[in-house]
Design brief:
It is a single chain. By secondary structure, the chain is mainly β. The chain has strands at about 5, 10, 20-25, 35-40, 45-50, 55-60, 65-70, 75-80, 90-100, 105, 110-115. The strands form 2 sheets. Strands 2, 4, 5, 6, 9, 10 and 11 form a 7-stranded mixed sheet that branches. The chain has a 4-stranded antiparallel sheet with strand order 1-3-8-7, with no helix packed on it. A hairpin with a 4-residue loop joins strand 7 (about 65-70) and strand 8 (about 75-80). The radius of gyration is 13 Å and the shape is globular. It starts with a strand and ends with a strand.
């Protein structure tokens, strides 16, 4: 019942930046956490970054120091600022909304392509 829409993906050259957004149909304040995952062609979906309702944050080792997760509860939107992008970051990026009940919801994804 929670609808999530990602946006902000695109084609960038290595070293470039993108800012992804995830707009939620429900209050993100009510969530236990929100997170970003990504999935490259031929690969499994992998964790990227997480932010909980107390603003605790964690990142995958591969993106530490380059990506920043944040949220704006007023706008019901979560963000992923991606800097110093690498070709290995190429993937479809998905937003995840998790409830304390254990339920979770996913967006449809937004494509990020890092290529020279």
């Amino acid at each position: 019942q929670v609808h999530l829409v990602e946006s902000g993906g695109g084609l960038v050259q290595p070293g470039g930046s993108l800012r992804l957004s995830c707009a939620a149909s429900e209050s993100i304040f009510a969530s236990r956490f929100m997170a970003w995952f990504r999935q490259a062609p031929g690969k499994q979906r992998e964790f990227v970054a997480h932010i909980d309702n107390g603003d605790g944050i964690s990142y995958a080792e591969s993106v530490k120091g380059r990506f920043t997760i944040s949220r704006d509860n007023t706008r019901n939107t979560m963000y992923l600022q991606m800097n110093n992008l690498k070709p290995e970051d190429t993937a479809t990026y998905y937003c995840k909304y998790g409830l304390s009940s254990g339920e979770s919801y996913w967006g449809q994804g937004t494509q990020v392509t890092v290529s020279s």
